[in-house]
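Protein 1 of 2
SEQ + STRUCT:
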Amino acid sequence: DENQDEIFRHVGLKAVNDCLDGFNCSIFAYGMTGTGKTYTIFGTKDYPGLVSRCCKAFFDYAMQRLSNDTFFEIR
């Protein structure tokens, strides 16, 4: 079993980087009831899932590149 960090590194980070390169991206969880889809996507306070980790990666990227002539818009 992969933990939340490993899943983000293998799946989420690629989606974030592709989005930052201008591609439209989505992550889809599919499987039987009770197999951990919601946990993987949303996680918990102690073990954040893909949504929290991807959002953090976007904001980290934006904060690293902020300057007076930089504009970021999130829709």
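Protein 2 of 2
SEQ + STRUCT:
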Amino acid sequence: MNWTTRITEMVGCKYPIMLGAFAGFDNTRLTAAVSKAGGFGILTASSFKSDDAFRNALLEIKKITKNPFGINFSIDKEIAPEHPFYR
């Protein structure tokens, strides 16, 4: 059973269920599981301390599911100057 809503049409997921971002926690496997189940998983970019760790998380999600997922890039005054994703 598919639920057609504006959200499912916009992001391409099966169900209008979105995983919220988890700042400070690696939610790679949870993001993949939510997307694989038909929801829309969201990976929190600021949880990763290096480009390689972030890249590996993206590759892991893509190995687990072909379904769409999102990436949350938080803009935080305290993190932004030091975090490599904001340069």
